[in-house]
Amino acid sequence: MSKTDEGAGSVPPKRIFACSGAADVGAIADQTARRLTREGAGKMYCLAGIGGRVEEIMENTRAAEKILAIDGCEKECAKNCLEQAGFTEFAYLR
To answer: Which Pfam families match (predicted)?
Structure first.
């Protein structure tokens, strides 16, 4: 059984990953993810933890009901990071 940050019996959350990037469009992607989290659409989660293969973050992401990746530019860092970590089922915004 994987370790999650939710209580027993709870529904796995929707995870939101944004490439916060060094450009203005990265900041917009980040702000969008934070707003979606505030509005209860899901929980913003650590994209760097996916890239670094941090086991707890990987496990919690595997347990997620849904995953949303948000990129601000054509480099598609959030999408690529998730795919390279083995996540293929996710919604995507750019």
So the answer is: DGC
Question: What end-to-end distance do the CA atoms of the chain give, in Å?
Answer: 34
Range of the domain at 55: 33-93
Inter-residue contact 77 to 19 (CB < 8 Å): yes
The string of pLDDT tens digits covering residues 28-41 is 999 999 999 999 99
Report residue 5 as tokens: 């940050």
Q: Enter the pTM of the model.
A: 0.86
Which DSSP category does 10 fall into?
P
Does residue 77 lie in a domain region? yes
